[in-house]
Write a structure and sequence with these properties.
The protein is an all-alpha fold. It has one domain (about 5-130). It has five helices and no strands.
Length: about 130
């Protein structure tokens, strides 16, 4: 296997690992901490906990992707937009009449992506500070 193919496969694996962390974190938050999480089924406290859990999951996923990346750690954290977008598209496509509003799902995805990029940025910043 050439080094280019190996590098591409590693990059894909890194992004998938970051997304796995996001998926585990959001699943834990939305099912264990909050219960039946949704715009119509959650009160203000549950919505706040869900939002903070999504932000923490995004941060953790971005840090994992950046940490595992051999090169360009911030790009790998930002590349989490692909699986997050695919996940959001599947949720929106399967939405029924009783589902959460579109803006609610898109907002949740935006929080995940923002957290992932900030997590990658924080990892890169910390690595630079340690190097100097």
């Amino acid at each position: 296997m050439t080094s280019t193919i190996r590098s591409a496969l590693r990059s894909i694996a890194v992004v998938l690992a970051g997304f796995a962390v996001i998926a585990l974190g959001t699943t834990f938050t939305f099912t264990v901490l909050v219960g039946d999480f949704g715009y119509y089924t959650s009160g203000p406290a549950e919505l706040l906990i869900g939002t903070l859990g999504a932000l923490a999951s995004g941060l953790a996923g971005g840090i994992v992707a950046a940490r595992l990346a051999a090169i360009h750690p911030l790009r790998h954290a930002a590349a989490l937009v692909v699986p997050i977008a695919l996940d959001t598209a599947s949720i929106v496509a399967s939405a029924g009449p009783e589902s959460d509003p579109l803006w609610f799902d898109l907002g949740g995805s935006s929080i995940l992506l923002l957290g992932a990029v900030v997590g990658g940025y924080l990892f890169v910043k910390r690595r630079r500070e340690q190097a100097s």
